[in-house]
Amino acid sequence: MAPxxxxxxMKKNKKPSLVxxxxxxxxxxxxxxxxxxxxxxxxxSSSVLVGxxxxxxxxxxxxxxxxxxxxxxxxxxxxxxxxxxELDKNLVQLRDRFLTNNGYDFQKDIAPWVGDDVTIAIxxxxxxxxxxxxxxxxxxxxxSDQQSMVxxxxxxxxxxxxxxLAQPKTLKxxxxxxxxxxxxxxxxxxxxxxxxxxxxxxxxxxALLDGRFLVITDSPKATxxxxxxxxxxxxxxxxxxxxxxxPKIANYQPFAQFYVNVPTAxxxxxxxxxxxxxAQVLAQLQNNQGLAGxxxxxxxxxxxxxxxWLNPNSQRVLxxxxxxxxxxxxxPAETLMMLTxxxxxxxxxxxxxxxxxxxxxxxxxxxIRGGIKSLTDLDLDKDLLSWMKGEFSLSVIPATPKxxxxxxxxxxxxxxxxxxxxxSGQSLRKSAEASISQLDEVMKxxxxxxVQPGKVAGQPVVNWVSPYGTLTATHGxxxxxxxxxxxxxxxxxxxxxxxxxxxxxxxxxQQTVPTEPNPTNGQFFLDVxxxxxxxxxxxxxxxxxxxxxxxxxxxxxxxxxxxxxxxxDIFIELKKVTNATTLPxxxxxxxxxxx
Length: 595
Prior knowledge:
alpha+beta
């Protein structure tokens, strides 16, 4: 939505409305901050990804999922009937593809021997740095230059697992084979491999590693890569920063854990013919190494604990500065959305560093700078961000209808920034006042708004009034060092004086926004249920409305963990389905598909 606001043509004799002017500025900064915040943000033991010592270190993506049927049933209790139906459809498809269609039943054939979690990993195409082994068959090499899949099943009962592997059930297409090239047993590094012979791209290989892990892949070469990683210690467990950062997000009995290899993902994106990454962006992304997370099911929703870290060889370091956490005590309880951060100037610099020239960035830094300049005549870096070194917040607060006083806006956009946070000890309020005064002159001379002094609860403020007489914006000061600007509905009286009942004191905020990590460099809160009911939202993802209908609130807390990593926790409070049914049985799903 933001780019069109910046690029709206401006005729010489017609000035854009103040709503356009200030909404563009506020939303561009807010959207850029959220985008950076979201994008920037177990040793081989129970605290790391299951199978991390088997999955090749250059894996593109890996996710472990619980095998506990009670947790899967708990997941199906969240949401609405529509989301439950969508989840069931995907679960049935996965079950039937990998189990039912091959004659297996999870509870009868898999549960007796499998561990608490299984891991699925996607491997990037082999780099070809080492000589290729002797080809197995033409079909098996047909997908060697494509991404391949590795599944790791921890074994808690080796005898049952060995029997399953020794006498697998008959495949509907193709067959299992112990024979290699029709002459000898297929082995690799002393490990026997059983593989199916079928259509190209549908060949599966299975190997039992030390009686502890059953590894199944969709490519013989992927099996070899997994064995190499296990034997040669070149797995995820040895990837830079993996074992140091994964324990930060460990949780008891997680539903899922995942890992994303950022440099590998960037290389694949750079090779894409549709949206290739520029060389400078690819080089910048090489500073990042991993993004990992743990997902846990709780009584009222889903908790996500995440960590991202830099490449150990990167010259870039993070500034450990976590000074947010006060703004939610300045805004009223009815606030619909709140985003806070510890240092807007540093946040912007980091966003520029990671986004400049990046076609995948939601908003280009150059576009934000240009938009601010064209709309306000102010230089974003020199006139504004130079004094915005303290905690900031961006909030949406609904208006209270007043009888006999029509209002064109249903909510106000509130921006607050603390100004006395210069490391030299120098107060930045004078710099802020000079920039705000300059902005007053722009509104007065360029847009013909009346700039009028006023008072709210006895506190001095400045109102911007359009030529049509509608109060469109108000700015002023709180506690002497917090500048505020309200755009849209006149909601200044909700923050001046400081409200008795604040957002921080509400039950939805306390139950949704995580208390860890603490101290924090930023938080986010969104009352999805109330927002959707009162305001139309743009469609950003498929099935968006279905997902929104299932969600009550969303909260996030982030922090710079150390000079190499960021931490953040997210909690999504969800609605619940009454009388949730069990997953359709294989027989029932088959009969439904026939109908």
